[in-house]
């Protein structure tokens, strides 16, 4: 289809080129050869009378015109997807959509697992791709490379709608036979023990540590770090170490591993997990249905007692 002499298929090409800023990667995403992708870029340059992407060293950087086109082009494509390609008639029993979700392994274990069970019952042809958190997840959401991001509010963008899913609290967790810990733990004991902590790197530093330092001016003695909430409880078994875990996850692992849960010796803010989606897909019927499913599952799970 052409609009004012522009082949509208080229908008997909332009969007991909501006996202990847690399001919080889763009060609792979478009499922065309590198020479074909170069030819499509040449057609776009001719239409807009602008270079659009300029080679600078090993990178291709967008021109000012290309930068100004990036968001409008993405918005047009998302509008087409949500209003034309994804027709308003939506039947979860026959829908074959594929949703990409960015979430921590904690959220995957305690929340997305029951969501997946519900999908099998209500929408058996909908598939999920659950991706780990990464430094550029906000860009991925804006570019519609993922459908949902589930994280605490302060990690999310202000550009897109979001909604509270569920709340959780924190607990201390130790090996059940840890001889240095009874049924309660003091702040002095807490600081003396070696800790196991989850660390996602500088861009995803655990908010727990930041809050603890801010409130009490104390730092934990971290002896082991891991990049997964689900490996943390395993690293406690057979040791004298301690860890801070979300109440939901701690309760789950105490049913499988010889662990003991203790109340924290300090007061910490409630953990609130939100879901966020691209604003241009707000009215998409399948997206709306998935958001309703999220909240349905969250409401049925209820909230743990916050200590």
TrEMBL record:
PANTHER family (UniProt xref): HTH-TYPE TRANSCRIPTIONAL REGULATOR LEUO, HTH-TYPE TRANSCRIPTIONAL REGULATOR LEUO-RELATED
Residue intervals of the HTH lysR-type domain: 6-63
CDD domains found in the cross-reference section: PBP2_NodD
InterPro entries for this protein: LysR-type_TF, LysR_HTH_N, LysR_subst-bd, NodD_PBP2, WH-like_DNA-bd_sf, WH_DNA-bd_sf
Matching Gene3D superfamilies: Periplasmic binding protein-like II, Winged helix-like DNA-binding domain superfamily/Winged helix DNA-binding domain
UniProt organism field: Pseudomonas folii
Protein name per its UniProtKB record: LysR family transcriptional regulator
Record family assignment: Belongs to the LysR transcriptional regulatory family.
Alphabetical UniProt keywords: DNA-binding, Transcription, Transcription regulation
Stored Pfam families: HTH_1, LysR_substrate
């Amino acid at each position: 289809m052409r609009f004012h002499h522009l082949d509208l298929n080229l908008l997909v090409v332009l969007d991909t080129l501006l996202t990847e800023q690399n001919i080889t990667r763009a060609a792979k995403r478009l499922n065309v050869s590198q020479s074909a992708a170069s030819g499509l870029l040449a057609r776009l340059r001719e239409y807009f009378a602008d270079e659009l992407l300029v080679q600078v060293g090993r990178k291709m950087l967008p021109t000012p015109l290309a930068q100004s086109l990036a968001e409008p082009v993405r918005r047009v494509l998302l509008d087409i997807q949500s209003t034309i390609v994804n027709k308003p008639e939506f039947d979860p029993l026959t829908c074959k959509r594929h949703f990409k979700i960015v979430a921590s392994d904690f959220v995957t274990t305690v929340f997305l697992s029951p969501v997946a069970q519900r999908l099998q019952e209500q929408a058996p042809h909908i598939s999920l791709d659950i991706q780990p958190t990464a430094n550029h997840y906000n860009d991925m959401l804006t570019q519609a490379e993922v459908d949902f991001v589930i994280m605490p509010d302060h990690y999310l963008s202000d550009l897109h709608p979001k909604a509270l899913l569920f709340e959780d609290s924190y607990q201390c967790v130790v090996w059940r036979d840890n001889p240095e810990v009874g049924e309660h733990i003091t702040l002095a004991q807490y600081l003396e023990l070696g800790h196991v902590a989850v660390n996602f790197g500088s861009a995803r530093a655990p908010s727990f540590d930041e809050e603890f330092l801010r409130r009490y001016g104390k730092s934990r003695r971290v002896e082991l770090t891991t990049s997964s909430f689900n490996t943390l409880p395993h690293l406690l078994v057979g040791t004298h170490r301690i860890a801070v875990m979300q109440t939901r996850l701690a309760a789950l692992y105490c049913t499988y591993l010889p662990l003991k849960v203790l109340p924290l010796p300090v007061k910490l803010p409630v953990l609130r997990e939100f879901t966020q989606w691209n604003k241009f897909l707000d009215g998409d019927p399948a997206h709306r249905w998935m958001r309703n499913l999220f909240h349905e599952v969250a409401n049925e799970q209820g909230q743990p007692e916050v200590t």
